[in-house]
């Protein structure tokens, strides 16, 4: 009961802070306006927060325009990612009905703009970009949003023909599976780190046995569908250690147990950067019908120097920065690299170099290409 009371008090405090910002001195012009459903708990708002950090550090002004949508069932409260950037310089929470001029309007998540009931009667923007951070179709062909409907909605609300910016080739391909009747940005709107990346090269392994780790939200889609694939990717053996940040309710239901050799923490129990220091091999295998758009958690693992092992289709995103396997081949890959420390360290450095290319400057360059002038 005490935990529930504390959680409710935190929500009240958060809502109060948001209302104070909305009631403060009105801002009428910004460099970048970001429109989204800020209740979203995962990668969308985490990516928004990193871009806001980059914009604030560069002296750009940002308006955060929240709209309710069908993209989440969360009742109230901005995500923890958004709450952490509200106090940054020149960051303003602005009502969707406020009078505002923006050099660039960034709309994050097509499902948000497709399903929101909010209008934007006072918003004037010079350019608009729809950041498609989730595939329009999954591997089973299920539609997650209607691309043309979202495009029409942007045009109706803003009077602008938006540019669509998929965050990866996986998302780009899914957009074109639905339609070719949209304007698509030539470059992918890749996820970035909002602060310059501090790279600490690995010098060896972290323990006496290989340590496999994974960090993801506790969703069914984020785990393999079968007991065989789960145990192939995350073995239950004394020869390997398995660290899991994000809970294990899904594999527990499939396996009927949580393997004794796994060390499991709930999502958010530890800072990812601390968790990753204890990991040699960051292994991410998921449901066969899921398609990962980009994967912020994978980028964090690369930056930390983990050797990252992913499903083969993600090679078009990460290239040589990661290695690729189906679940059945993971144990052999881990043992091969464990037996060759020089190859492990070479792969680790390759991944860190890739992550270092995704710092704040990359985001600022794409803003300037869309008309935003840096101070």
Class of secondary structure makeup: alpha/beta
Unreliable segments (pLDDT under 50, ≥5 consecutive)? 1-24
CATH architectural arrangement of the largest domain: 3-Layer(aba) Sandwich
| Shape type | globular
Write down the CATH class of the largest domain.
Alpha Beta
Main sheet, how many strands, which sense, barrel?
Answer: 7 strands, parallel
Which range does the strand content fall in?
15-25%
The termini sit apart by: 50 Å
Q: Provide the gyration radius in Å.
A: 21 Å
Counting DSSP E segments of at least 2 residues, the number of strands comes to 13
Strand order of the largest sheet: 3-2-1-4-5-6-7
User: What's the multimeric state?
Assistant: single chain
The averaged pLDDT comes out at 90
In CATH, the homologous superfamily of the largest domain goes by the name Glycogen Phosphorylase B
Number of helices: 14
Structural domains: how many: 2
By CATH, the topology of the largest domain is: Rossmann fold
Helix content: 25-40%
The helix/strand order is HEHEHEEHEHEHEEHEHEHEHEHEHHH
Characterize the structure shown:
By secondary structure, this protein is α/β, with parallel strands linked by helices. The chain has two domains: 181 residues, 3-Layer(aba) Sandwich (Rossmann fold); 146 residues, 3-Layer(aba) Sandwich (Rossmann fold), CATH 3.40.50.2000. The protein has 14 helices and 13 strands. A seven-stranded parallel sheet has the order 3-2-1-4-5-6-7, sandwiched between helices. It has a six-stranded parallel sheet with strand order 10-9-8-11-12-13. Helix 4 links the parallel strand 4 and strand 5. The longest helix has 21 residues. The radius of gyration is 21 Å and the shape is globular. The relative contact order is 0.12. The N terminus is likely disordered.
């Amino acid at each position: 009961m005490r935990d529930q009371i504390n959680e409710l008090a935190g929500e009240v405090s958060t809502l109060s802070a948001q209302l104070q910002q909305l009631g403060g001195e009105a801002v009428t012009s910004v460099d970048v306006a970001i429109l989204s459903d800020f209740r979203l708990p995962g990668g969308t708002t985490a990516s928004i927060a990193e871009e806001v950090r980059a914009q604030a550090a560069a002296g750009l002004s940002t308006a955060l325009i929240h709209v309710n949508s069908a993209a989440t069932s969360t009742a109230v409260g901005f995500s923890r990612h958004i709450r952490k950037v509200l106090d940054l310089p020149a960051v303003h929470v602005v009502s969707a009905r406020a009078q505002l001029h923006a050099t660039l309007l960034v709309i994050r998540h097509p499902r948000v703009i497709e399903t929101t009931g909010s209008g934007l009667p006072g918003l004037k923007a010079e350019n608009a970009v729809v950041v498609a951070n989730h595939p329009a179709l999954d591997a089973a062909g299920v539609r997650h949003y209607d691309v043309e409907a979202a495009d029409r909605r942007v045009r109706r609300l803003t009077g602008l023909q938006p540019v669509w910016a998929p965050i990866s080739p996986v998302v780009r391909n899914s957009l074109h599976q639905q339609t070719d009747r949209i304007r698509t940005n030539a470059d992918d709107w890749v996820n970035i780190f909002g602060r310059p990346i501090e790279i600490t090269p690995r010098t060896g392994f972290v323990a006496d046995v290989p340590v496999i780790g994974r960090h993801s939200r506790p969703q069914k889609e984020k785990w393999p569908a079968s007991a065989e694939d789960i145990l192939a990717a995350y073995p239950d053996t004394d020869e390997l250690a398995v660290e899991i940040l994000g809970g294990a309710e899904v594999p527990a239901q499939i396996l009927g147990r949580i393997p004794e050799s796994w060390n499991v923490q709930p999502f958010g129990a530890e800072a990812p950067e601390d968790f990753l220091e204890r990991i040699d091999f960051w292994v991410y295998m998921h449901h066969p019908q899921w398609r990962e758009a980009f994967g912020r958690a994978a980028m964090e693992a690369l930056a930390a120097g983990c050797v990252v092992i992913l499903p083969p289709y993600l090679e078009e995103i990460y290239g040589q920065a990661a290695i690729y396997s189906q679940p059945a081949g993971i144990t052999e890959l881990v043992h091969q690299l464990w037996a060759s420390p020089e190859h492990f360290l070479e792969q680790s450095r390759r991944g860190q170099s890739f992550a270092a290319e995704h710092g704040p400057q990359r985001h600022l360059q794409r803003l300037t290409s869309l008309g935003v002038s840096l101070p």
